[in-house]
């Protein structure tokens, strides 16, 4: 009897958790990730052309994917750094990749700045005491 109640409670909890995951990670996002797999590894064999990509950009992607020096550099650098370098060499391809990797750069920069600001407003801020430093500095100025 008790085990049945626990089991039912567990099933209900896991069902609600799954619904929550589906809310935050919808299936269409997984499909979008598969369509943009060229960004995560442009050196995969048999790269398929995404619908949103022009033929010119696709040709640039194919040229880049056949370059062995680029492939070795891709394996040793972070993804964002790699695409920033590609943006310097092939602006259209790099821009397309970076727009997909970082769709809202201003939001990211704003949140990063706010986090830095919030870190200075902690309870530890109250422990900062600049008065002894300014007293020493002002004493040096008055002596000279």
From TrEMBL:
It comes from the Eukaryota. This is Zinc finger BED domain-containing protein 5. It comes from Eumeta variegata (Bagworm moth). The gene is ZBED5.
